[in-house]
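Running this now, will post back.
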Amino acid sequence: MLRSYYLPESHDFEYIAVAPWPNYDSQLDWVENVHTIELWLNQYVGHHWERWAWATHSGHNTWEACVAFKWAKHRTLFLLTWA
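Update: finished.
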C-alpha cells in the first residue's frame, strides 16, 4: 500500500541513504517524487517496513530523500540509482 507522503518512521534499519529527490523542481512535486521512489523501492528492494523505511538524520535537507534499509546491498542499489 502506497501512502504517498514522506514522514520519518520508527525502524531498526541501520543502513541510511540520502539522495536527491527525482524531478525536484519545487515543493509542488513532492507527492509525485515520494510516489516514484516508493514504487521503485517496492519493486527493487522489497516491501515497506520489511526491507526499507523512510528516515532522517542530522544534516538531512528537504531536497533529499532519506531512506533506511535492512541490508547494505539495498542502500548501495538505491544510491547507484538515485544519487
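Strands lie at 15-20, 52-54, 64-69. More later if anyone needs it.
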